[in-house]
Amino acid sequence: QVQLVESGGGLVQPGGSLRLSCAASGFTLDYLAIGWFRQAPGKEREGVSCISNSDGSTYYADSVKGRFTISRDNAKATVYLQMNSLKPEDTAVYYCATESYGCGVVVAQVLDYRYLEVWGQGTLVTVSS
């Protein structure tokens, strides 16, 4: 069964770092673009980052640009999100999802669920002192 599983969330102080993992099973990761999304309590889900399936191009929301880095290891069927210089406003449940048509959803910064087919269960990141 096609599945994505996130891990790596937790409690971290402002300025700290975490690395999230998104492990895929049931399909070949090489052929998929993978996006990271987050949702804070009472707020809309938003796109954070995406890595393409073709040339490995990466995309970031303005709010995380320069602080977060997305990467993929196809041999391990895993996509990572390295989060540095974390801020309290980064607190959210983080999800990974497959993206059809490359990384268009994250690039546009408009969630279109027609192109987001498979989701993980999410991992909670809390940034607090």
* Total of helices: 1
Share of β-strand residues: over 45%
Order of helices and strands: EEEEEEEEEHEE
How many E strands?
11
User: What is the terminal separation in angstroms?
Assistant: 40 Å
- The structural class is mainly beta
Q: Radius of gyration, rounded?
A: 13 Å
Largest sheet: 7 strands, mixed
Give the integer mean of the pLDDT values. Answer: 93
Note poorly predicted spans: none
Shape: globular
Portion of residues within helices: under 10%
Written overview of the protein:
The chain is mostly beta strands. Helices cover 4% and strands 47% of the residues. It has 1 helix and 11 strands; from the N terminus they run βββββββββαββ. Strands 2, 4, 5, 6, 9, 10 and 11 form a 7-stranded mixed β-sheet that branches. A hairpin with a 6-residue loop joins strand 4 and strand 5. It starts with a strand and ends with a strand. The mean pLDDT is 93.
Keywords:
129 residues; mainly beta; seven-stranded mixed sheet; four-stranded antiparallel sheet
Furnish the topology, listing elements before pairings.
Layout: E1 3-7, E2 10-12, E3 18-25, E4 33-39, E5 46-51, E6 58-60, E7 68-73, E8 78-83, E9 92-99, H1 104-108, E10 116-119, E11 123-127
Parallel strand pairs: 2-11
Antiparallel strand pairs: 1-3, 3-8, 4-5, 4-9, 5-6, 7-8, 9-10, 9-11
